[in-house]
């Protein structure tokens, strides 16, 4: 399975994402630049985190209007999987590829800490290597991760099982409505999430709870637990 | 407003530029005529304390700056230290004190931006940042505003730029009421064969301006940073620059791409005194003249005068000398990142610094005298008065459990989580230890086992009571914190913050602190490779506590054997390495005396550097052998606070005995130096343990077995057991309740 990472000026977790995808898939992902209008033939496109264009306007608003995002949308329409992490999630929302909005954290401060997530729906291409209801660890690092949607939209995404990750055990770090941490589009092939699974994939990170997400998306079977 | 180049040079104008009459006379002698207004500004920028180190140079020269590991010592944008395998670490610490007091968010943000630029100017990708912050008393009306702005500014810049903040310090003291300190540290990773320096080489080569456009922000900033404050400080706000981390991130990527292309001959970032300082440094270091044509400088405001352009401190700008044949390739890289690229001058062979603006030569000065031959002072200084030792029976009493909880829940020893959770500590995916331990640790990308440890330290109250011992202690504590992770300390950077050096007693603090730093660095093999001096930290005649911050870097060969402060498991022996006979004895200047009894008398604990090195080297060996399971250095608050921190980090309790004889207060709260708490995975009956004791005896290291880990409470001697959850509640609550009230 091949992957691509979108690189925009101001994104800064692109190198983290490239390192994680390389370690997990054994292949270095291709990178696509802001002005690229076509994305090579890949199975997964990832928009990493950061502060695209400084986020001086609404987070992700400028990025969402760059040529490369039209190419990302075309891929998504063809059924290719897309993941947006943190700023990537904000960009997908601004691009209209995911519903709702990401507002400033309720405490108005940047927050970097580890939270707990519950895997709400393990029956998707992004979560199949997790168990339903599994509680996983995940770091967050953002200033604008307070997810909001109007009641109608909220009822729809909740009803359709499109909330894949929810902050658990009272660790909601930003005031997100319904503790929402990650959602998919109606077709189920575009995922946006605020936490950073790419920063929790190996022993050096102190855990690997983020790894099954990428393994799911890349079609890598969950590794069997080693015999004790 | 446009300031003309033809303004008349009056005594008031000279004084307003911070130039003393004898300095002005020196200018007249050098130039052989009355300087133009632009020239006066250039001299003011180059000869102020901030850029010239004129009061401290004599003493800085006494510091040890070399060693087999040192590739580049002080004098460049940052120091460079070899870490093997063709890699090196590039680092420096720099103050942004004055701007941060005037405008905390932007002052702190641009402090971070400036230090990151220093590091990547040398060809290194920044991999870690730290910040040493000192604020006034918590109840001072400005303190919360400053804490909130400074922390948000550091986070706002560092998080967007994309560097993990892995360590730092936050302290409060009324002596910082009128001058907060913001000392920013950054470290980067580079290849030893691809280090870039500021020394220009070759005549007639293009001088290229890169990065953001020039505006009027920060005009005169370096001069402001070299003056004392008074009540009219708010009028200085326009001298503070505004940071743009997005442009800096683009500048980083563009510079690293450009360096890899082989186009760069010399590079210098525009920091204090902007275009002036960067151009002069490149020329003076390379024994070349520089001619600049200001009409080619990218500007973002209309009708800027030569004076303003030369003194602007607009951020995110670089000056380079490029290979002419690579010009086109270089420009394409900068355009790709949306940055300005302009050839604004060329190198010459006549050692003159010439500025052309609108067809007119507005400055023509001898470049060497501006740069490396700036004035230097041997300012008068007096020996600090030594403090009388406390009487041996002067041991004010308190309940140990109550005192410990009060100290952990107070302004200085409480958890700094409120601060560091606003910093991205995890970005880049290499953070192995984030704030909250003895040192921040980041693994070396591209290497299977290596990691770098970072720590920033100084105990200002010790420095106030005895600047020499305080200087030694700052170095020793930094070295100790690095050692406590298992790292071999490599080298350090110093950020010397003091009051007005024209006062002999302040100058005496500086001299003695530098002597203490030098002696400690020599004894520990821990050279100073970069640094910064910030003087005139005074308001209305009241100086700050002398604060020589030390930022150290250490190398861990195998991070899988690194030590952390949290107890590893229950039932392990706790040993106190480097203890004196009574475990702890020195109460003078201790956190206990200050926080519990409101006393600040007595001398600070002395540092025995031979003992320090011997104990540290042994503890490091124990970590590398895998015997030590948790390690914590003892500092503020002594044994009781050290044990509590190890318990809180792991949620595992401990039972620690009390000596049968003597008073338990100094035992638990004394701040004797050179001590580590170490838990080991050996049993008391094992042969390995016996062998260790024999070895320790031979080396003359006292390491009493003081207790055992386990349970959910911390039990110190005969005092009541405290649940670890109660310690944590006290420790975690002070900062949020102070800031969010």
TrEMBL record, chain A:
EC nos: 6.3.5.3, 3.5.1.2
GO MF, one annotated term: ATP binding
Active site (catalytic residues): 86, 196, 198
Pathway the protein contributes to: Purine metabolism; IMP biosynthesis via de novo pathway; 5-amino-1-(5-phospho-D-ribosyl)imidazole from N(2)-formyl-N(1)-(5-phospho-D-ribosyl)glycinamide: step 1/2
SMART domains in the cross-refs: GATase_5
Catalyzed reactions: N(2)-formyl-N(1)-(5-phospho-beta-D-ribosyl)glycinamide + L-glutamine + ATP + H2O = 2-formamido-N(1)-(5-O-phospho-beta-D-ribosyl)acetamidine + L-glutamate + ADP + phosphate + H(+); L-glutamine + H2O = L-glutamate + NH4(+)
A single GO cellular-component term on record: cytoplasm
A Gene Ontology biological process term: 'de novo' IMP biosynthetic process
UniProt keywords, alphabetically: ATP-binding, Cytoplasm, Glutamine amidotransferase, Hydrolase, Ligase, Nucleotide-binding, Purine biosynthesis
InterPro entries attached to this UniProt entry: Class_I_gatase-like, PRibForGlyAmidine_synth_PurQ
SUPFAM superfamilies: Class I glutamine amidotransferase-like
CDD domains: GATase1_FGAR_AT
Any Pfam family matching the protein: GATase_5
Xref: Gene3D superfamilies: 3.40.50.880
Subcellular location: Cytoplasm
Quaternary structure (record): Part of the FGAM synthase complex composed of 1 PurL, 1 PurQ and 2 PurS subunits.
Role: Part of the phosphoribosylformylglycinamidine synthase complex involved in the purines biosynthetic pathway. Catalyzes the ATP-dependent conversion of formylglycinamide ribonucleotide (FGAR) and glutamine to yield formylglycinamidine ribonucleotide (FGAM) and glutamate. The FGAM synthase complex is composed of three subunits. PurQ produces an ammonia molecule by converting glutamine to glutamate. PurL transfers the ammonia molecule to FGAR to form FGAM in an ATP-dependent manner.
PANTHER family from the UniProt entry: PHOSPHORIBOSYLFORMYLGLYCINAMIDINE SYNTHASE SUBUNIT PURQ
Protein name, UniProt field: Phosphoribosylformylglycinamidine synthase subunit PurQ
Lineage: Bacteria, Pseudomonadati, Pseudomonadota, Alphaproteobacteria, Hyphomicrobiales
Automatic annotation (TrEMBL), chain B:
Pfam family of the protein (one): FGAR-AT_linker
Binding locations of Mg(2+) 2: 118, 269
All copies of domain Phosphoribosylformylglycinamidine synthase linker, residue ranges: 17-54
GO CC annotation, single: cytoplasm
Reactions the enzyme catalyzes: N(2)-formyl-N(1)-(5-phospho-beta-D-ribosyl)glycinamide + L-glutamine + ATP + H2O = 2-formamido-N(1)-(5-O-phospho-beta-D-ribosyl)acetamidine + L-glutamate + ADP + phosphate + H(+)
The protein's annotated pathway: Purine metabolism; IMP biosynthesis via de novo pathway; 5-amino-1-(5-phospho-D-ribosyl)imidazole from N(2)-formyl-N(1)-(5-phospho-D-ribosyl)glycinamide: step 1/2
Main location, first listed in the record: cytoplasm
Alphabetized CDD domains for the sequence: PurL_repeat1, PurL_repeat2
Residue ranges constituting the PurM-like N-terminal domain according to the UniProt record: 75-189, 436-556
Binding annotation for Mg(2+) 1: 94, 532
Coiled coil: none
Enzyme class: ligase
UniProt keyword annotation of Iron-sulfur present: no
Residue ranges of domain PurM-like C-terminal in the record: 203-356, 570-709
UniProt keyword annotations, A-Z: ATP-binding, Cytoplasm, Ligase, Magnesium, Metal-binding, Nucleotide-binding, Purine biosynthesis
Localization in the cell: Cytoplasm
Family matches, as InterPro entries: PRibForGlyAmidine_synth_PurL, PurL_linker, PurM-like_C_dom, PurM-like_C_sf, PurM-like_N, PurM-like_N_sf
Binding site for ATP: 53, 92, 494, 531
Enzyme Commission designation: 6.3.5.3
Family, per entry: Belongs to the FGAMS family.
Job description of the protein: Part of the phosphoribosylformylglycinamidine synthase complex involved in the purines biosynthetic pathway. Catalyzes the ATP-dependent conversion of formylglycinamide ribonucleotide (FGAR) and glutamine to yield formylglycinamidine ribonucleotide (FGAM) and glutamate. The FGAM synthase complex is composed of three subunits. PurQ produces an ammonia molecule by converting glutamine to glutamate. PurL transfers the ammonia molecule to FGAR to form FGAM in an ATP-dependent manner.
Subunit composition and interactions: Monomer. Part of the FGAM synthase complex composed of 1 PurL, 1 PurQ and 2 PurS subunits.
Protein's UniProt name: Phosphoribosylformylglycinamidine synthase subunit PurL
Organism: Mesorhizobium alhagi CCNWXJ12-2
